[in-house]
Amino acid sequence: MDPNTQALVQTLAQGLLTGGIYALIGTGLSLIFGVMRVINFAHGDFLAVGMFIALFLFQRLHLDPYLSLLIAAPIGFGLGYLVQRFLLARLGDRLESSSMLATLGIGLILSNGLLLGFGAQPQSINVAYATKTFALGGIQISLPLLIAGLGTVLAIVLLNLFLYRTELGRAVRATAQNPLGAELQGVNTNWVQAVVFGLGVAFAVVAGVLLLPLLYAFPTVGENYTLKAFVVTVLGGLGNLPGAIAGGLILGIIESLGAYYLSNNYRDAYGLVVFLVVLLLRPEGLFGRTVKRV
Amino acid sequence: MISRPRALTYGNVWLSVILLAVMALYPFVFGKAMNFGVSTLLLAGFAMSWNILGGWAGQLSLGHAALLGIGAYTVTLFAIPERAPAWLGLAGPVAPWWGTLIGMGLAALLALVWGWLTFGLRGSYFVLSSIAVALIIRLVVINEDFGGGAEGLFMPDLPKLFGLDLFDRKVEYGLAFFFVALTLLVTHMLRRSRLGYALQAVREDEDGARALGIDPRRMKLAAFVISAMLTALGGSIYAIYLQAFEPHTLLELPLSVQIALMAIIGGRSSIQGPIIGALLLAIFGEVFRNIFANANLLIYGVLILAVTLFAPDGLVGLFKRRGSKLGANR
């Protein structure tokens, strides 16, 4: 391969793997929006919570971050379940804007709680594999990034099995399509919504844990990821799960290409610009069909 | 956005006059705590300016820090001798009041473009786009030469304003007081104007308002431009008060969130709500500073949760509701 092609392939591979993680975060947000029409402004902060759970377990118990998934994911699920059950559900059918404000408040409580507990100093873990890369057909791929990409695939496969192979998954899909109709068919939609919020948060937490070997953890790290999750879901169409996956990959590739060929300083801006353009021209998302303007 | 009769809950002029009188007396009573006074007044002014777009036009912006930043950066850049002339080929630095006016103009221009592009979007989509626009502006300021990078800018020595030293805290208090009074005046005028009524109609029922011959996008644009110019004015005063600032404190999302939440916690439905919200949160911030250190937004999180759960119209709305219940029982 000539150096230019090689650089391009390298950049694309990097972008695709990063995009996988964005897809994982966006899937959680999209799942929540699809079922309960709530835009979760605390999504990135739940991701930060995941990072800090893994960091804490690593520092105190020397638990490998990937093993701590077994603890972090259920905690995330429980946290999301409780938040939906005891806070968001109480807003009743008061509008989109009050649930948005409530999740904004939850996000502030989470990020500032982490700040109180862990301090503002960025922290990282030193595991042997954090900096390990291996060569694949002439391109270098970082091991934790590859594991994160594989973890994303696994999580999304599991989610699909859940949605399309289980009774509860059917109830979730029914609630997403028509909450009242589902209720009439004997679905306990309140419970379903709490489960879905729990799942969405668990996805964010898992993404946080997978990112820990790659990034510094600090309490406000989530801010950036909340926005990335929005970009991903808007690109794919709010509530559209396959769209979220595609949106994540697209965002990852746009960022990598922009950072390499234009300027690394504006890495975070490329996605935002695309996001604004899509928002203006196709608010239903690149892959949305009949979603009407809210 | 929220369909609930609001017309009854607008505060009266006298309450505003009393609030202003209390603010005017502050320096004579608490002359030692001028920093608290100036920053609280500025926050109140920002919350009220935000409220013209967020409360009156019902467009929840989480990007107002960008407009504030434009005011602050412009007034400072135009006052620095090495930077001002290079920019526009001017002979030397521009007096701060001219810098302020230029900043307000730039903010109005940005609001026009930004609003024109995004007011077709409704609800959450506008909120998301406002965050995105503000973040892009922040990235430009940090990465381009003119903004002084991550270190930000220093305000140079400023010429005296009518013989008054602009770096005297009492003078700064006067400027902040002027900012709040002007914002309050604009809000009151808006309340009685065609634009004000049109905005309320658009907020309650956009399609209904359109049927009445109101152009919702145009009304929202007008509200955004007014809101943006006032915010930029406040930003200029904030820059003079701070003397040195960095993008980190001035352009980040938390400041935008803080501005919006002060207005919402106090009450979007009233004229004085944002002032009361700002005052309350400033006092809370002061009280909890030792306990929470820099986790000061924690209290905003708790309050906004409490408000969305128990007082959707904000604290002022809560009192009004209690009041009318008492009245009904009599």
TrEMBL record, chain A:
UniProt KW Cell membrane keyword: yes
Alphabetical list of InterPro entries matching this protein: ABC_transp_permease, BCAA_transport_permease
CDD domains given in the database record: TM_PBP1_LivH_like (cd06582)
GO molecular function annotation: transmembrane transporter activity
Any Pfam family: BPD_transp_2
Localization per record: Cell membrane
Keyword S-adenosyl-L-methionine: no
One example of a Gene Ontology biological process annotation: amino acid transport
GO cellular component term of the entry, any: plasma membrane
Main location: membrane
Record keywords: Amino-acid transport, Cell membrane, Membrane, Plasmid, Transmembrane, Transmembrane helix, Transport
Record membrane topology: Multi-pass membrane protein
Spans traversing the lipid bilayer: 20-39, 46-63, 69-88, 100-121, 141-163, 194-218, 238-262
Family: Belongs to the binding-protein-dependent transport system permease family. LivHM subfamily.
PANTHER family to which the protein is assigned, alphabetical: AMINO ACID ABC TRANSPORTER PERMEASE PROTEIN (PTHR11795:SF445), BRANCHED-CHAIN AMINO ACID TRANSPORT SYSTEM PERMEASE PROTEIN LIVH (PTHR11795)
Record's protein name: Branched-chain amino acid ABC transporter permease
